[in-house]
Write a structure and sequence with these properties.
The complex is a heterodimer of chains A (581) and B (587).
Chain A: H1 2-7, H2 13-29, H3 32-46, H4 53-99, H5 102-107, H6 110-152, H7 154-201, H8 203-208, H9 212-264, H10 270-312, E1 335-344, E2 347-357, E3 362-366, H11 373-380, E4 388-393, E5 396-397, H12 403-409, E6 410-414, H13 424-428, H14 437-446, H15 450-455, H16 473-487, E7 491-495, H17 503-515, E8 521-525, H18 529-532, E9 537-542, E10 545-550, H19 552-555, H20 561-569
Helix pairs in contact in A: 2-4, 2-6, 3-4, 3-10, 4-6, 6-7, 6-10, 7-9, 7-10, 9-10, 14-16
Chain B: H1 18-28, H2 32-63, H3 69-118, H4 121-125, H5 129-171, H6 173-180, H7 183-220, H8 222-227, H9 231-280, H10 288-330, E1 351-359, E2 365-374, E3 379-383, H11 390-397, E4 405-410, E5 413-414, H12 420-426, E6 427-430, E7 439-440, H13 441-446, H14 454-463, H15 467-472, E8 480-481, H16 490-504, E9 508-512, H17 520-534, E10 538-542, H18 546-550, E11 554-559, E12 562-567, H19 569-575, H20 578-586
Parallel strand pairs in B: 3-10, 3-11, 6-9, 9-10
Antiparallel strand pairs in B: 1-2, 1-4, 4-5, 7-8, 11-12
Helix pairs in contact in B: 1-10, 2-3, 2-5, 2-10, 3-5, 3-10, 5-6, 5-10, 7-9, 7-10, 9-10, 14-16, 16-17
The chains are: A alpha/beta (581), B alpha/beta (587).
Chain lengths: 581, 587
């Protein structure tokens, strides 16, 4: 895992080594100022050797400028390398995510992936840009300052060293105790977040049942709890921080008392005491940091484990083992299913499907929920592979098609429409970025979307999606349809695309669909029989099998699910409790 | 036409709004005493914290030359006391300030959430929910630091600066004046850096939000991307957005990391100046203790200036958030109870529209001169194209909107003479999204009547034929439903929301396309439930389903804000008009 991670840093290894060298130099230079000040006090102020003033001040300023410049350089080097690393890492994960199959997204929450791609990645960046050199620098500063002070007066230094472990201990406990508090705050935050989010999403239900007071009560519980969690976390800080500060202050007391006494005993100069006061931060700072740095390292390892896990996820769609030479141009659109089975987690969803669709034909797929309609159409563009059997397009097994050729040939418009935060025009041209504005408008007209779009204040420039305005379900479905029509693939799959569209509009859309008959291979998944009545082939699915197959005119003659539903939708009850399957 | 909106920075207006800041200060009012206490504590602590350099000066100049060990011990004890005072003050500061900050954001969040409960759903429909959510949760949170630390620190730091100068003057006026020549440079440098830093970080936060937004959309829309084989294009957009973030980051940290060196170098120059002054001008007049103490104070000078600058930065940033928050709190509710409105207790369900007109703000009429009378218990189906005014009509019934002209009467009472809460309790609305709250199925049904017993819940579920499927679920009525938990089918969700509505038992029921997403399989089941639900209630049904429509007592065919045809199914078919044509589509 660490080797894999190192792969993203490797190209910057010389920069990193250089930055580490600079860190050593800076830590050493950090000792210069207090020492020079000590000499100034002893030699110039007290020793009255005024000739030394300018050289010493020159050194003091020079050392500071040099140290600060070098420090800026190495800090920026670490930042730069961490940025390059995280960018490469993020892009590699993104590419992987883009290619993972539907099955992965069905079982993975977007929120979890977002957390991984933002906070976990940031933890990696933070480790390279800050944690790493901080550990190194603090250890160096501590060693250097202890050495310097020991050479000045070992006895005083030894007494100071007695106090330091308490600082380290308090920091360690603080870091340890604060972490669970933070995760409690975070957990409560997400509870609060979901109460508010549900309230907003369900605002119609809240209003319909006049439950505003009940909602306020639910909200208050979480809001109170959130405040309490924050105060609990603050209490942990309140417990340790004063202790840490107190011990750090105690060092100063010891120095003044011990140092003063040593000066009185003529065992130490005033300048040496000044060096001690100047370097006391160098003793306490590393200790104050230690707990946090250990904490950060632990979090880094946990984040890296999650990232590594994602980087190992494989798409179940393997590239073809026997690539075949495909004819140039678009697919013709002849589909064949040969004894296709599909199972999800060992549970059969589709069993033994066989049928053939000629290029330009329309297929209607109907059946109760859970009968496998959506799974079937997902196989068409190889979002999933069948567990057994074969799906062929133009006589070639889908697994032998390169995905980048197959998918543009099979276009989808789904029931649950996703629009990107972009202009309406940008969404419509999504599948065909080179389309002209005129073409986008033409497709919108076909999809019955033009009228409502042109009524919007910004027309086709209206931004929709999460960062723009909201559209109704039926409007979104029509935009998705326009998107599909503009992409103009030889095979079109409409998975209950008009469920939220009103009747009159649907009538027009059906005319659009019928006009494509013969030109496109169409798969229509629908609940309304009227939507698919004109199909060349109607498949009635039930529990993953084809129950009935044929044309509308034939199927309404056969007793069975299709006829029942047809008459029911006409408003005629036939054989009331005849089972749905 | 602009095509990619991922790289357009979201504009959080950064104009400084004094009004918003003044308004948040009002939230601090109830905490006047703890705030005063905290400030007093901080001032004491900062005074105590500034004493040690002076005590050290006393040690170097008085105790040591006089070989006065007693005084040295006394001075050390003095430092110990300042350390203890500092620690205790720190302890209280952390507790008190967090307490105030958390209480204020708690109050602010309650206010904004309360307002959200009062806002009409047109408010929720006209903007993405994420934008509302971020105001209630994230923006409010971002204020906590400003309120808890920023404000009190600011006051304390102003005192600190005054104390430092005071101590310096007390030690030596001439050296103070010399030192103060470096201070303007220090001051200017810090403020300048802070300003550049602020701009850089504003830019960075926009780039960050672009990156996150693009990432989120790519994940949420991955199926679309894959089906259009747009992966390479998306990756290049992602690289671009990521690169913009990286550049912005490097710029921001470049400035951030330059701030400290500049402060350090300027401080060293100040220290050098003190030495030069002492040696060249006041060679014999100034003691070593004063020099050491002076250098100590110079080093303490930059911290308060830096915090004041940082406070300003976060104030400007938070002012933008505050503005958004107050914008929501100030959003007009629109419809409120009339002064003499009274509660309705029982409702028969007689509805009458008299010359009702309605138009939204735009002035385009949505409903024109609606006149009809509905008897208690009647079922009315509303049919017509999108935009014909069906939803508007039913929204007027529960007074989510008020007619621009005309009167709506319920049981002969004009709607605006009734209190909103009592009216809406009698008017049940079921819309297309059968929203279920996270919780158990029983909880969701109980939402219709909060004090319902388990037996009542089961009875409601039974009578609309939902009991059978609920009982078959792993935990029955205690099965948890959530966004990702149990996957209920649309039809099942529908039945649960029917049970919820049945339990609420409204006299008037509105179904706004409530059955449109039900699949054929469950439709018959739902039909039975629906029939039970409609029994004995006045109901308005907007539906696509022929089966639902044709059972209605009367059908209103709406067109462009008017009722074009009325009658029952058979009558309208016989009429051969618009309804007959629509019927052709449905069949």
């Amino acid at each position: 895992m660490f080797r894999w991670f190192w792969g993203f840093l490797r190209r910057d290894r010389y920069w990193l080594v250089g930055a580490l060298v600079l860190t050593v130099i800076c830590s050493a230079l950090g000792m210069v100022n207090p020492m020079l000040t000590g000499i100034l006090v002893d030699k110039v102020i007290l020793g009255r050797d005024f000739g030394l003033l300018w050289p010493l001040l020159g050194l003091l300023i020079g050392a500071t400028v040099l140290r600060m410049t070098l420090r800026w350089m190495f800090v920026m080097t670490f930042e730069n390398s961490s940025q390059r690393m995280v960018k490469a890492l993020r892009e590699s994960l993104f590419t992987r995510l883009q290619h993972l199959d539907f099955a992965y997204y069905d079982r993975t929450r977007t929120g979890d992936l977002m957390a991984l791609m933002t906070s976990d990645l940031d933890m990696c960046r933070h480790t390279i840009s800050w944690v790493g050199y901080q550990i190194f620098e603090n250890v160096l500063v501590f060693i250097f300052s202890v050495t310097v002070l020991f050479t000045i007066h070992a006895g005083l230094m030894a007494v100071l060293l007695l106090v330091t472990p308490f600082i380290a201990l308090a920091t360690f406990f603080l870091a340890k105790d604060v972490r669970p508090q933070f995760s409690k705050v975070r957990a409560q935050f997400s509870k609060l977040n979901s109460v508010v989010q549900e309230n907003i999403a369900g605002n119609r239900v809240v209003k319909a049942f006049v439950r505003e007071q009940e909602e306020l009560r639910k909200f208050r519980v979480e809001n109170d709890e959130y405040r309490q969690r924050n105060l609990d976390a603050a209490a942990v800080w309140g417990k340790y921080i004063p202790i840490i500060e107190g011990f750090s202050g105690l060092l100063m007391v010891i120095m003044v008392l011990g140092g003063g006494w040593l000066i009185l005993e003529n065992q130490m100069t005033v300048g040496s005491l000044v060096v001690f006061t100047g370097l006391v931060w160098a003793l306490t700072q590393p200790l104050r940091m230690s707990g946090w740095l250990i904490n950060d390292l632990q979090r880094f390892v946990a984040s890296l484990e999650r990232i590594y896990e994602l980087s190992r996820v494989e798409s179940s769609l393997k590239p073809s083992a026997h690539p075949v030479a495909l004819p140039e141009g678009k697919a013709k659109g002849r589909f064949e299913f040969r004894h296709v089975d599909f199972a999800y987690a060992k549970e059969p969803i589709l069993s033994d499907l066989s049928f053939t669709v000629e290029s330009g034909q329309t297929v209607g797929i109907v059946g109760p929920t859970g009968s496998g309609k959506s799974t079937l159409v997902r196989l068409l563009a190889r979002f999933q592979d069948p567990t057994a059997g074969q799906v062929l397009l133009d006589g070639i097994d889908l697994r032998d098609w390169p995905l980048e050729r197959l998918r543009p040939s099979v276009g989808f418009a789904m029931q649950d429409v996703f629009l990107f935060s972009d202009t309406l025009e940008g969404n419509i041209v999504f599948g065909n970025p080179n389309a002209t504005v005129e073409e986008a408008v033409a497709a919108s007209k076909q999809a019955m979307a033009h009228d409502f779009i042109s009524r919007l204040p910004d027309g086709y420039d209206t931004i929709v999606g999460e960062r723009g305005i909201g559209l109704s379900g039926g409007q979104r479905q029509r935009v998705a349809l326009a998107r599909l029509l503009l992409a103009d693939p030889p095979v079109m799959v409409l998975d209950d695309t008009t469920s939220a569209v009103d009747l009159e509009t649907e009538q027009h859309l059906q005319e659009t669909m019928r006009a494509l008959h013969g030109k496109k291979t169409m798969f229509l998944v629908a609940h309304r029989i009227s939507t698919i009545a004109h199909a060349d082939l109607i498949l009635v699915l039930g529990k993953g099998r084809i129950l009935q197959k044929g044309r509308h005119s034939d199927l309404i003659q056969e007793p069975g699910w299709y006829r029942d539903v047809h008459f029911h939708q006409l408003g005629l009850e036939v054989g009331d409790d005849h089972g749905a399957q | 036409m602009a095509r990619n909106k991922y790289d357009v920075d979201e504009d959080l207006n950064q104009e400084f709004n004094v009004h918003a800041v003044r308004r948040i200060l009002a939230y601090l009012k109830p905490f006047r005493r703890p705030v005063t206490g905290a400030v007093a504590l901080m001032v004491t602590a900062s005074f105590a914290g500034l004493l040690p350099p002076w005590l050290i000066q006393q040690a170097l100049d008085v105790a040591l030359p006089r070989h006065d060990l007693g005084y040295l011990i006394l001075l050390s004890f003095g430092i110990l006391v300042t350390v203890l005072i500092g620690s205790v003050a720190l302890y209280f500061r952390i507790r008190v300030m967090n307490g105030i900050g958390q209480n204020v954001i708690h109050a602010l969040r309650t206010d904004i959430f309360t307002r959200l409960q009062e806002l009409p759903f047109s408010y929720f429909d006209s903007r993405p929910h994420g934008k509302i959510l971020i105001r209630v949760v994230n923006y409010v949170n971002s204020l906590s630091d400003l309120l808890s630390n920023g404000l009190i620190n600011l006051i304390a730091d102003l005192f600190s600066l005054a104390f430092i100068v005071g101590f310096m003057v007390f030690l030596d006026l001439r050296l103070t004046l010399i030192c103060l020549t470096v201070l303007p440079a220090l001051f200017a440098a810090i403020l300048l850096m802070q300003r550049r830093q602020r701009r850089a970080y504003q830019d960075l936060s926009r780039k960050q939000s672009n990156l996150n937004a693009y990432l989120h959309e790519s994940l949420a829309g991955v199926k679309i991307t894959q089906s259009f084989a747009r992966e390479p294009e998306n990756e290049s957009i992602f690289r671009r957005v990521g690169e913009a973030w990286r550049v912005s980051w490097m710029k921001a940290v470049g400035i951030l990391f330059a701030t400290w060196p500049i402060i350090e170098i300027l401080s060293v120059l100040g220290v050098a100046l003190v030495y030069v002054a002492v040696v060249d001008w006041f060679r014999d007049a100034i003691s070593v203790g004063i020099i050491v103490a002076f250098v100590g104070y110079i080093w303490r000078f930059w911290a308060p200036i830096n915090t004041i600058g940082a406070f300003y930065t976060s104030l400007v940033q938070s002012a933008a958030y505050l503005e958004r928050i107050f914008e929501t709190i100030d959003e007009p509710v629109g419809i409120i109870d009339a002064p003499l409105a009274r509660d309705v207790s029982t409702v028969q369900g007689e509805v009458e529209f008299r010359h009702v007109d309605f138009s939204y703000d735009t002035g385009v009429p949505v409903l024109e001169d609606m006149n009809f009378h509905v008897k208690p218990g009647e079922t009315i189906a509303l049919v017509g194209a999108t935009g014909a005014g069906k939803t508007t009509l039913v929204n007027l019934l529960s007074r989510f909107y008020t007619p621009s002209a005309g009167t709506i009467l319920l049981d002969g009472q004009p709607l605006d003479t009734l209190t909103l809460a009592s009216l809406r309790r009698h008017v049940g609305v079921m819309s297309q999204d059968n929203f279920l709250f996270s919780g158990t199925i029983a909880d969701n049904i109980r939402y219709g009547k909060l004090d319902a017993t388990d037996a009542q819940i089961e009875a409601a579920a039974r009578s609309i034929h939902a009991h059978d499927f609920i009982e078959k679920l792993p935990d029955g009525y205690a099965t948890a439903v959530s966004e990702r938990g149990l996957r209920l089918s649309m039809g099942q969700r529908q039945l649960i929301s029917f049970a919820r509505a049945l339990l609420a038992d409204p006299a008037l029921l509105i179904l706004d396309e409530a059955t449109s997403s039900v699949d054929t399989e469950t439709e018959r089941l739902v039909q039975k439930g629906l029939a039970k639900l409609l029994q004995g209630r006045t109901s308005f049904v907007i539906a696509h389903r022929l089966s639902t429509i044709q059972n209605a007592d009367r059908i209103f065919v709406m067109e462009a804000g008017r009722i074009a045809e009325t009658g029952n199914h058979t009558e309208l078919l016989a009429l051969g008009g618009r309804y007959a044509r629509l019927h052709g589509v449905m069949v």
